[in-house]
């Protein structure tokens, strides 16, 4: 906390929004546990953070009382100062709303909600899954947008596959031969890892909804291509868009084609829920391939021609010219040698 105070003081000293009055700010409120559906006061650790250079750092911390009440006093106030209070339960931090303390409003009240952590069963569901497939020369660019929901009143923290391993809360079964994956939010990009050909994370999932969006690239070396992916969670609605293809080139047996124009074909589940593990498959028809793909076959053809040419030259060296006529070595032997061979065979 001392380091945060030094950073905060330095930030205030070097900016135009340093407090100009002697008014001290106060943040107070209560912490409630919502795991039972009815908020219950909760005694937990509470920290107030302050924004320094765009990031929140801890500033002060207290323990709420048995009624869940907490209070932070003598906080610097100013138009440019942004605070955020948060509470921790079962190792999970629950941030509250951002707070500004000014001369006119030096006191702010807030309520922080926490919940119990559970490791199973997995309550997560997919409310919506949008997939966009963009074929390009030699590759497929696929963007997936997932609207995930935890409909329970508890925070799902997952289970570890074995002792010493991190718990897993979500697995993404994207095609394992992808070259790279980019997440729209850096928060998720730093918290996913590749394990057993799946992207996995141990991010806790509190009640409510979160959107997860990412793009991955698949190298395409076949003229006729297919995109296949199993569902990681039960899903209420799936939409797949294929760009740059016509309706007569693309097929998806599971989903219904709803709209199609000259450059985009759209498939939807049409309100039909899909179970965990359901295979999504899109036949993309013929795709442009890079010249290097054809180059290897050209190289093979050239190699065969060279081998045949070398064989022909080798054979030609054994053909003798006698009397201006092309003859084989057997017919070009001297007559004395030929007669001698005949006598040996007769004997």
> Portion of residues in helices?
10-25%
Radius of gyration: 36 Å
Q: Order of strands in the sheet with the most strands?
A: 16-19-11-10-21-23-22
Listing every helix as H and every strand as E from the N terminus to the C terminus, the arrangement reads HEEEEEEEEEEEEEEEEHEEEEEEEEHEEH
Strand content: over 45%
**What low-confidence regions span 5 or more consecutive residues with pLDDT below 50?**
2-21
* Strand elements, count: 26
Q: How many structurally independent domains?
A: 2
In the CATH hierarchy, what is the class of the largest domain? Mainly Beta
Output the structural class: alpha+beta
Largest sheet: 7 strands, mixed
SSE topology sketch:
Elements: H1 2-13, E1 24-33, E2 40-41, E3 45-52, E4 55-63, E5 69-76, E6 82-89, E7 92-100, E8 107-114, E9 117-118, E10 125-136, E11 139-150, E12 155-156, E13 159-160, E14 167-168, E15 170-172, E16 178-183, H2 186-189, E17 192-195, E18 198-201, E19 208-219, E20 224-230, E21 238-243, E22 256-260, E23 264-268, E24 279-286, H3 291-317, E25 320-322, E26 325-327, H4 335-346
Parallel strand pairs: 1-8, 9-12, 10-21
Antiparallel strand pairs: 1-2, 1-5, 3-4, 3-6, 6-7, 10-11, 11-19, 13-14, 15-18, 16-19, 17-18, 20-24, 21-23, 22-23, 25-26
Would you give an account of this structure?
The chain is elongated and about 100 Å long. It has 347 residues and is α+β, with helices and mostly antiparallel strands. The model is unreliable at 2-21 (pLDDT under 50). A hairpin with a 3-residue loop joins strand 22 (256-260) and strand 23 (264-268). The termini are far apart. 16% of the residues lie in helices and 46% in strands.
């Amino acid at each position: 906390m001392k380091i945060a105070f030094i950073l905060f003081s330095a930030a205030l000293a070097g900016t135009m929004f340093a407090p100009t009055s002697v008014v001290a700010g106060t943040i107070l409120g209560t912490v409630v546990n919502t795991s039972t559906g009815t908020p219950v006061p909760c005694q937990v650790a509470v920290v107030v953070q302050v924004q320094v250079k765009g990031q929140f750092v801890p500033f002060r911390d207290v323990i709420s009382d048995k009624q869940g009440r907490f209070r932070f006093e003598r906080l610097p106030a100013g138009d440019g100062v942004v605070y955020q209070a948060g509470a921790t339960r079962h190792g999970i931090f629950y941030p509250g709303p951002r707070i500004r303390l000014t001369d006119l409003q030096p006191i702010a009240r807030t309520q922080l909600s926490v919940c119990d952590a559970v490791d199973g069963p997995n309550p997560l569901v997919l409310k919506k899954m949008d997939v966009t497939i963009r074929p390009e020369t030699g590759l497929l660019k696929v963007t997936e947008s997932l609207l995930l929901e935890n409909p329970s009143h508890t925070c799902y923290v997952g289970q570890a596959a074995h002792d010493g391993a991190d718990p897993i809360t979500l697995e993404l079964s994207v095609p394992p031969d992808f070259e790279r994956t980019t997440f729209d939010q850096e928060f998720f990009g730093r918290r996913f890892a590749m394990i057993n050909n799946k992207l996995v994370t141990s991010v806790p999932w509190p009640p409510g909804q979160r959107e997860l969006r990412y793009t991955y690239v698949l190298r395409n070396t076949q003229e006729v291509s297919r995109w296949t992916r199993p569902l990681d969670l039960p899903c209420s609605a799936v939409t797949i868009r294929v760009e740059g293809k016509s309706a007569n080139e693309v097929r998806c047996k599971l989903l219904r084609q709803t709209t199609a124009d000259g450059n985009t074909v759209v498939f939807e589940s049409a309100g039909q829920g899909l179970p965990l593990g359901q295979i999504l498959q899109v036949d993309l028809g013929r795709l442009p391939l890079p010249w290097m793909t054809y180059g290897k076959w050209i190289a093979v053809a050239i190699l065969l021609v060279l081998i045949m040419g070398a064989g022909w030259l080798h054979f030609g060296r054994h053909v003798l010219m006698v009397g201006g006529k092309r003859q084989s070595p057997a017919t070009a032997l001297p007559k004395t040698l030929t007669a001698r061979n005949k006598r040996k065979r007769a004997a």
